[in-house]
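Weekly modeling sync, notes
Attendees: S.R. (lead), two postdocs, one rotation student

Agenda item 3: backlog of single-chain predictions. S.R. asked that every request posted to the team notebook include the full sequence so nobody has to chase files. The rotation student volunteered to paste the first one in as an example of the format we agreed on. Action items at the bottom.

Example entry:
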Amino acid sequence: GRYAGWIALESAIAGGADVALIPEIPYDINKVATKIENRKKRGKNFSIVVVAEGAKPKDGEMVVQNIRNNGAGVDNTKLGGVGQVIAETINRELKLPIRSIELNIPQRCASHISSLTDIEEAYNCGKKALQFATLNHTGKMIAIKRISHNPYQITYEMVDLANVANFVKKVPQNYITNDGCNITKDFIEYALPLIQKEPLII
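Predicted structure, as returned to the notebook:
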């Protein structure tokens, strides 16, 4: 969520969000307010807005809590609070009761609701990594390459860690609507296979 909106968009699917704001596309708060107001006019008395912590307004900056000192080679910028900023702005513009909730820890502790696809792919990545490690490969990592959406097909590949570490994989522009406020059918097509099948809990 810091510099890429993958988690935010996936949360938008999971929560049935009406607006999703991500770092890749600076948001227009007026468009967000209009979407909420239009829903209210249609008798929808609630709206869910998902906000990535790195989301920023047009001609604005990300909301920074503080600058840490964790040493060189890491990002010492601690983000946080953008959800509250947007909530206060919408409340001021539309005079609507708004609650800002930061998922944070609950989101990280939600492995009990992982899809079977998620669990299997995580297991297979670990298995492949062990296999390559026993063959004395080092400085590598396992990557998942999507072959097709439907039918869902992937392969596991070994890639150089130097080509992956400290790089951000951005959300493609066609995964977010032109107004920068929500997900598209292209993103749903991408994400749908990842949330299929439920694990058997014994």
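Discussion: group reviewed the output briefly. The beta strands are 19-21, 49-51, 64-67, 77-79, 140-148, 153-160.
Action items: rotation student to repeat for the remaining queue; S.R. to check formatting next week.
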